[in-house]
Amino acid sequence: MSEAQVTNVPEISVSELSGALKRTIEDRFGFVRVRGEISNYRGPHSSGHAYFCLKDENARIDAVVWKSSFLRMRVKPQEGLEVIATGKVSTFPGKSSYQIIIESIEPAGIGALMALFEERRRRLAAEGLFDEARKQLLPFLPERIGVVTSPTGAVIRDILHRIEDRFPVHVLVWPVRVQGETSAAEVTAAIEGFNLLPEEGPLRRPDLIIVARGGGSLEDLWSFNEETVVRAAASSLLPLISAIGHETDWTLIDYAADLRAPTPTGAAEKAVPVRLELLASMADLDRRHQGAMLRLMDRQRAELRALTRALPQGEAIISFPRQRLDRAGSGLAGALMRGHDQHRIALARLSHRLASQSPHAKMARAGQRLEALDARMLRCLEVGFERRTQRLTHAAARLTTARATRLRAEKERISSATKTLEALAQRQRRAFGAGLSLRAAHLRSLGQLLQSLGYRQVLARGFALIRDAEGRPLRLASQVEDGAQLNIEFADGSKTAVAGAMGASAGGATKRLADRPAGKDAKKSGQGSLF
To answer: Which of 8, 182, 220, 449 fits a 20 to 30 Å CA distance from 468?
Structure first.
C-alpha cells in the first residue's frame, strides 16, 4: 500500500519546486518592514546593486537593493547602522535561500540618526570641511543676498521683513523643498547655482547666501545633514550663512557654513546692519570730523603766527645770496674763456678722429680686404676642385672594383641556386611518381576489397535481398505484415511480391506455396508468387 502511494505522487523538477516556494513566500508576506542592524556591507557592487545582511540578536536575513532603488534612497546603507527596511521577501533559487529585496531604508529611531550624524560629522571634519581657516568673512554691506528656502513658508517672510526693517537690499530667492527625499538635491543645486551666476548682467551673482529653514524634528532637518549639501556649502565661493531650525538645532551644514545663525531672523540680522544706526554713526563721525578739522586749523594758524615772528627780515635773508651772486658774476667771464679753449681743443681731436673714420677711408680699407678675400677664395676654389677630383677618381675606382666583385658573387649564387633548383625538381618528379604509384595500388586494393565485400557477391551465391515498399531492407520476419508489398532483389534482377500469413512450420509454408495456383488464377487470389 505504501509503495502505491509513493508511486502515485506526481514528480516535479527542482526548478518547479523552487518556483512554487518563491510564489508561496511572495504571496504570503508581500511588503514587510524589518528592523535590524546592517552587517557585511562593502558598498555597492560594480553592477550598482548592493548586497548585505540584516541581523538582530538571534537571526539574520540576506538583503539586496537594486541599483534603481539605491539611487533613490535618501539614507544609504552603512555598516553597523540600525535601520527599518521596507521591501518584499523573495527567494533565490540558485542557492535555495530566501532574502528581502529592499526598496527604502530609514534609521531606526533618534538613536540611529544621532549615531549616523556623529559618524558623518567626524568623517567630514577629518577631511577639513569644518576648519575655521577656510571660512570666509561676511561682506559688511552686501548689495544682493541669495536665500535658499521654501517660497511658501514663514521663513522667507521673516527674512524679507527683517532685511526691509534694517537695510533694504535686493534679495534673490531660490525656491527649494526643505524636507523630503528631493530636498537635499534641490538645496545642493541651489547653492551651486548661485555660485555659477555671472558677476554682471540682469541676474547677477549675490554677495551672500542664506540657507534657512524653520524648526522641526531631527528627521525633518535631516536633508541638511546629507553629505552633498555639506560639501556644496563647504566649496561655495560665496560667503554662506546657515539658519536651520531653532537655536538648539544643529545640522552638519552649520559646521560647514561660514557663519551659523540661531534662527532665520537672526541670519537676516547678521547679513545687513541697521540703516538708522549707520546714519546716526555717520552723522556723529561727520560732527567729530568737522570739530577735529576746526581744531587742527586753529592749531596750525597759531603755529604759523609763531613761526612768522621767529623768521628774520627780508634784507637779512637775501644779503648773503646776493654776495655769492656778485662773486659768481665776476668769475663767470674767465670761466667762459677757459671753457671755450677746452671745447676748441676737444673739437680738434674729434675732427682728427672723424677724418680717420670718414666713408672714403673706410671704403678704401674695405676694398683692400675684399681684394685679399677674393684672392684667397680663388685659391680655395682651385684646391677644393683638385681635392674633389681626386676623391671622385678614387671613389670611381672603388665602385668599379666592388661592382665587378658583386657581379661575380651574384653569378656564382645564381648558378648554385639553379643547380639546387634542378636537383629539387628531379626529386619532386621522382617523389610524385612514386606517390602516384602507391595511391593507384592502394585504390586497386580498395576496389578489390569493395568487390569482395559487396552484397552483390552474396546475391551471386544464391541469396536474395528483400526490401519494403519504401526501399528499406528487411532482416526479420516480424518486420513484415500480411499483405505488405515486397521488393526482392536477385543477382540478375528484381521481383515484387505480396506477403501472406505464415504457417507454424516451414513444411506448411512449402505446402501452401505448392498448392497455390499460378498465372491468372494467382492474380485472382490476391497473392503473388514469391518465386
So the answer is: 449
